[in-house]
Design brief:
about 450 residues; alpha+beta; UraD-like; Urate Oxidase; 8-stranded antiparallel beta sheet; two-stranded parallel sheet; 15 helices; about 40% helix
Amino acid sequence: MTTSLAHLNTASRDDFVAVCGPLFEHSPWIAERTYTQRPFATVDALHAALVATMYAATTDEQVKLIASHPDLVGRLAKEGRLTNESTTEQAAAGLTGLTDDEITAFDRYNASYREKFAFPFVICARQNKKDAILSAFPTRLHNSRDQEIQTSLVEIAKIASLRLIDKVTDQPETPMATLSYNSYGKSAVRLTKVVRNGPLHELFEIEAEVLLEGDFTAAYTEGDNTRIIATDTIKNTVYVLAKEKPFSSTEEFAAILARHFIKTYPHVSAAKVTLLQAIWKRIDVDGKPHDHAFTSGGPQKRYAQAVLDRTHEQPSIKGGVRGLLVLKTTASEWRDFHTDRYRTLKDTTDRIMASQVDADWHFISANADFNAASDAITNAILSTFATQHSLGVQQTILDMGNAALAASSAISEIRFELPNLHRIPFNLEPFGLKFENDIYVATDEPHGRIVGVVTRK
């Protein structure tokens, strides 16, 4: 029996896991962790999200996932105790009704494979017949354990894709349109808060966005607004809580707001609060930071997000930075990249490297020292950018990610998005002058866009 993607996008967590959990053998945790990423535009997008969750898991979790699979033509198969999915897949590969010699060959290979790698041999049976599977055993037995873990995960992704196609369709269950997902809220709520500690003042300038999910369907289908919390009410809540609740960081305030909407409104199922804080630095007067006078710290903004739903007691919190401009005039190369008929860019071993860093990091705990972590991570990013010789933005992203994770044990991963803000050498030859890495034209469009996520092992 198949279900529609539209239904999954509005299903409860239990119903979502009931459909997507069996895609990964005895491992419903993959579906559970992916649930909060709804809605999915296509079945392929759903599969990609599930596979991304699998790859984001720890190595121990990945090995347990692999170990959840049965041996091909193994004891469970002989005893008829496979899952329905595995039974169908092994039959499709022609693994039923084998000769005694073939069964003996499978038993021998299974034993050798388990002895070397300590988990079962996994292959997408629906894409292979028995002869191809038997020939794959000796080839893969030459691999290292790490190689086999990665190979097994690739095969599991294939298995999950075919199982998903069997279970979920992009087509609606009826020819009528249906509301598959909804959320709403208030954006661009601009708040300035001054905390007056005697003569010493603290300044917060924040742009807030609050998005709510919940039982609001009747407003769409019937024009019944009785459950709608007006966006003006949401805006007012930001200001009232900023007044009533003390906080020392944007992350903390984001969590305060998220908890409020979940606690106050029973029909709200999830709240996502995103805050951008302008950077203001104290003006130095006679070498001393002034108590209540500030100057802009630059165009960059501090980023914070708290997401909370009714299945969790504590919000998931991100910190980060947006629009952090960085540039260095040397120690940056870009060479030896792919060559084909479309390439016109020349190799360079000395270039200006400029970008605008957008980064966000996942906090392990909702009670972290957010300010200390933000300072340590930002300093690590900037120091690495400045001091590491770059062979490309991709390499620099990984270097900065490693440095950020080393600088703060409070985070589990960090995501970067960096555009190339180009400085193009100006052609001085018509003027009888030589370019000596000194005169450039600054341009930011079009630009490359490089994304990388660095996760703690």
